[in-house]
Write a structure and sequence with these properties.
Radius of gyration: 20 Å
Largest sheet: 7 strands, parallel
Helix content: 40-55%
Order of helices and strands: HEHEHEHEHEHEHHEEHHHEHEEHEH
Oligomer: single chain
Number of strands: 12
Strand content: 5-15%
CATH class of the domain at 51-184 and 192-259 and 273-302: Alpha Beta
């Protein structure tokens, strides 16, 4: 079980990863030195920061578009990062990068999502796991199939079970999707107009509409919450809009197309939202750090709602997915809300400005 990628996509991801590490190299030594000075330092809100030996974290699918950005933000925050790749070819390509990373802040391991023993070895010693994996149709045409939805849910189940069984893991952060919030039978007039972290898509509706990407993310998140509740695992899920950023449509074409199935309806109802990959990565790190006080939760993450014909046409040009803007009357039935995450991010920003 793994993420199916073309050789061209894999090479692009590894080159992006190499460039990311180069961009981080100038600050790594400074971060490490500050860690030694500030071990067990009390923060402005009277919580304790991790000491350096408590900051080993694991990121799954470590050379994907989102994972690369998360690794970058973690390194900037002084974490030691262990990334998971799903095949030996990738680890050989990345070995030189791993060996040249400063101060051994980066490690690379092979693990399979259908092999709990390999996951247990990968997570051992880590205080947190960031599970970012998304699965794509190996045909490369539909972007996502019903079979892939089942694979994604099973992978999430395995990751959650292993997190709960790994003594060192205290926090588990799962990358979910805004699609887990928006797909419901909207002919029901009793539905609230605000869609936020309390909103859930309907599984039967996703099935009937063949919304397989939404179904996979929904089932993955549902099973993760079930295991977290049963096993006492601290879980946070981040329900993100369509991930954008430099080269996103070239790096992540299949998952982008899969997300945009039903985009016409999303656009006409004010539900088509995007998020820059760097903002989403930062949110993952901040949510993890907030979990040390709050214990987890569900968050909606986006930075733009596509609500004008110009914005829709631009997105269509970037992704190759057509959105008809002629019938749009500029009124929306629903309102997306990410206030919960915005409050957290603004609190973090205020604290970081305190001297």
């Amino acid at each position: 079980m793994g993420i199916v990628r073309t050789d061209e996509s894999r090479r692009a991801e590894i080159e992006d990863f190499r460039q990311m590490l180069l961009s981080c190299s100038g600050i790594i030594h400074q971060v490490k030195t500050e860690e030694e000075i500030n071990r067990h330092r009390v923060t402005t809100d009277n919580t304790y920061e991790y000491s350096s030996d408590q900051k080993l974290v694991c990121v799954t699918s470590g050379v994907s578009f989102l994972s690369i950005a998360i690794v970058k933000h973690l390194l900037h925050r002084g974490y030691t990062v262990r990334i998971i790749v799903d095949n030996q070819d990738d680890i050989e390509r990345l070995r030189e990068i791993e060996e040249t990373s400063s101060n051994n802040l980066l490690g690379i391991v092979v693990a399979k999502f259908d092999d709990r023993r390999s996951l247990l070895e990968a997570f051992d010693g880590c205080c947190a796991v960031f599970h970012t994996a998304a699965f794509i149709d190996p045909s490369g045409l539909s972007g996502y199939s019903k079979c892939m939805a089942e694979i994604e849910a099973k992978a999430a189940e395995n990751v959650a079970e292993v997190c709960a069984a790994t003594p060192s893991v205290r926090n588990y952060v799962l990358t979910s999707s805004l699609l887990t919030c928006i797909w419901r039978d909207n002919s029901d007039n009793s539905l609230t107009s605000v869609i936020d972290h309390n909103s859930w898509s309907d599984e039967s509706f996703c099935n009937s509409g063949k919304l397989w990407h939404a179904l996979g993310k929904l089932k993955a998140e549902r099973v993760s919450w079930r295991i977290a509740e049963e096993k006492g695992l601290k879980l946070a899920t981040i329900c993100s809009g369509l991930v954008t950023g430099s080269r996103y449509s070239h790096t992540n074409p299949s998952s982008t197309i899969a997300y945009l199935k039903g985009c016409q309806y999303m656009y006409e109802n004010g539900l088509l939202a995007t998020v820059d990959v760097d903002k989403l990565a930062e949110a993952h790190v901040k949510v993890h750090e907030e979990m040390n006080r709050t214990g987890g939760g569900r968050y909606v993450c986006f930075d733009k709602v596509v609500c004008s014909p110009d914005e829709a046409q631009k997105l269509g040009q970037e992704t190759g997915v057509h959105i008809n803007t002629n019938s749009h009357d500029a009124t929306f039935r629903f309102e997306l809300s990410n206030r919960k995450l915005d409050r957290l991010m603004s609190q973090v920003q205020r604290c970081s400005n305190v001297t």
